[in-house]
Amino acid sequence: MIRTLSLPSGPHHIADISQAAGRAVSDYPYVVRVLLENLCRNRAWGRPVTEADIRGLLDWQAHIGADLPLYVTRVILPDSSGLPVLQDLAALRDAVAARGGDVAAVDTRVPVDLIVDHSLQVDYWGAADAAERNLAREFERNAERYRFLKWAQQAYAGLRLFPPGTGIIHQVNLEYIAPVICRVERPDGVWAHPDFVIGGDSHTPMVNALGVLGWGVGGIDAEAALLGQAYSFPIPRVVGVRLTGRIRPPALTTDAALLITDTLRRAGVTSCAVEFFGPAIASLTVQERATIANMAPEYGATCGYFPIDGQTLAYLRATGRSDEHVALVEAYGRANHLYRDAADPTPSYSEIVEIDLDAVLPSMAGPRRPQDRMPLARIAEDFRSRLPRPLDDGGFAAAQAPGTGAMDHGSIALAAITSCTNTSNPAVMLAAGIVARKAVARGLQPPAWIKRSLAPGSRTVTRYLEEAGLLAPLAALGFDLIGYGCTTCGGKSGPLLPEAAREIEQRGLVAAAVLSGNRNFEGRIHKLIRANYIGAPPLVVLYALAGRIDIDLAHDPIAIDPAGAPVFFHDLWPTPEEIAQAMPAATRREIFVDTYRTSAAGSSLWDTLEAPTGPLFPWDRQSHYLVEPPFFRHADAAGGLERLERELQGARVLAAFGDSVTTDHISPGGEIPADTPAGRYLIDAGVAPNDFNSYVARRGNHEVMARATFANIRIKNLLVPGTEGGVTVHFPDRTPCTIFEAAGAYRDAGIATVILAGKEYGTGSSRDWAAKGSALLGVKAVLAESFERIHRANLVGMGVLPLAFLPGQGWRQLGLDGAESFAFLGLVDGVMEGAPITVEATGPSGVIRFQVQAQVLTQAERQLMREGGIPASVLRACLHASGTVPDFNGETQPRP
């Protein structure tokens, strides 16, 4: 299976997938080809990959769900999930040292890139120095976290850090980090192989646009992979998406991405690998593909893959990769059947979904989910219809706003051009600048109450906007550069204008936000804004000018100019010719070379930051940012499925939810309200509300994060109908309390808890704290109608058992009301053998018996559940590697 590829730079060994298959591989999806190469190469490198693993993948359609022992090329992390990962590794080193092991066994075994991009908050805006001031405030607010990251930089051999001010993780990955094809020197010579990356952020699939296979995982999965363990992954269904037609003006790539998201979410591609093909592909640039691939978690897929082709090579050249490396990518891709030519036959897919890009219309998605796409003409009517509807029916339960003021229901309070999804695509960014230029020429301005910001995904964007003469018009409308980071899309929108916040609160307004992001889940963007819409950057500018979400942009005047003339959509919208005229500024190779050759905006602040050194981190016992994680303290104690089955006897329901509960609902990432358990904990610790920072910034403190779990201000626990927020009732006394208080009472009484949920439990971010927090609260199992892939895996990783109701059933359909106590029969066989598990739910009116299926999908996951989760597994592995192994009492003994 190994042969040598001759290149101008010398011979390169490759794992030949056609030799492994013993036949032509043209009918294999490209995703399967990359996975096959990974197995063949790692078997050749002496890793524990078997012939049976390879044979199973060669007949992949018959073995969907079978376990694949993959080895990642690299791991990429944002600071939001990366800091907890490194914090866990620091605690793991402490645990190994305490048991007499060698802390050197705890180190990165594959390259790890961490980009600090999730901590920037929009404190300052609408001024030329906003970016500089926000960056300074970021360092003030996060100095303790950043000192820890600098310690990690010297403590872990394979860790590379990109300081604040560099850009957003996925755009930096696309523009600079991703090699597409890797070149590795080994004792037997030089090898070439495909890049394969997992990331601690769910939008890692954005790099799929470049022909790189990769996807998001929880931090607990990333920990095991960067320690060099095999990454266990089930053979996926591969859904081919045939794109036809073309995106016709006035629609843009963002509109196509929203159509694709809507279509694929309806088609049910959850946990599938999506691979794009068809006649429309060749004309889509990598930047346009990236907008589509970035939304993979929104349509529920593991990845949204575009194979290597001519567009890949053009992008690599344009972004400053060397000619030698581009030649390697093409030569390897063609030699090992990973390069796609237009004339190549269509692979055999599990299913094919047809999407006609001719049907794309200018759209926004909202007000709560990215898959809820609406053409512009429908948005106003939909918003108005939701105002009086009850919360449980998707409405806002809003009365007519009392009194009068500048704002009303539907007024836009926040408009943000941000997010890797769109700021990586110069066509839509240039379009926003052209709209701004035309609006300025007509003398238009957004209403004063709207907070506006521009937060690109990399410094290349401001370079080309400035060269095209479009940065100034955006600033003239209040869209000044505020920094480089996720900001509003990740819940770091900062405070609204005081007058807007006051009017929203005092008059009970349902205000709106418009942003060019990928997520608009409830409570994510800002706690005071209940209606959130995502769309293309130029639409963000147009809605800001209109000042309202309940306007038909397609037909109504957007504004009245100083001369009294109405200004319509077509007056401001850019033509394809205008965008094409500005495009050369965005495709100059020198911009990318210069950007990544010069220091990031935050480099000087980063370089002067003092940090500890040495192999072990010196925890500050007075810190409320960085607290030693508890996950390894008892990780080697006796445990496993038998204990879990015992603990679950007599379990109570902590909370019960409907469909589409997101990881934002389970573990919010935005600001910390003072009147929540987390806020009260910080106040009791002497932290003033002004210094709370965000939930993301406090992820290094498990005391905060346990109290944050299920504490989203918009979460709806159906045990307490008609309410929002982290409240529940304690059984059997039915005492109203917070979810954190109820969890503590159950835990003190020795009673395990479970969660009941509907479909698509755990959609959204790859937020491992949604699983970690659940485990800390004492949740032992989640019973849902279906799970999203990453959160399901995270639950397994923390030893929390995900259980699915049988098709057509759910807790509501079975007549459960949450007051029951639960017992689980046959749990061990259900997890290890896949047999149905019988549940007995005993309530006041008797016993309801039903069956559930454990969502533990691979042999590796079954072993994790037996061991009690990843913390126990990695601790055992590190102790074994350092010469000691734990016994079942948590003591250590010499390795035989």
TrEMBL record:
InterPro entries assigned to the protein according to its UniProt record, in alphabetical order: AcnA_IRP_Swivel, Acnase/IPM_dHydase_lsu_aba_1/3, Acoase/IPM_deHydtase_lsu_aba, Aconitase/3IPM_dehydase_swvl, Aconitase/IRP2, Aconitase_4Fe-4S_BS, Aconitase_4Fe-4S_dom, AconitaseA/IPMdHydase_ssu_swvl
Cofactor(s) needed by this chain: [4Fe-4S] cluster
Chain ranges of the Aconitase A/isopropylmalate dehydratase small subunit swivel domain: 680-805
Broad enzyme group: lyase
The keyword Translocase is assigned to this record: no
Matching Pfam families: Aconitase (PF00330), Aconitase_C (PF00694)
Reaction it catalyzes: citrate = D-threo-isocitrate
Pathway(s) per entry: Carbohydrate metabolism; tricarboxylic acid cycle; isocitrate from oxaloacetate: step 2/2
Keyword entries, A-Z: 4Fe-4S, Iron, Iron-sulfur, Lyase, Metal-binding
Chain's role: Catalyzes the isomerization of citrate to isocitrate via cis-aconitate.
Protein's name according to its UniProt entry: Aconitate hydratase
Provenance organism: Pigmentiphaga soli
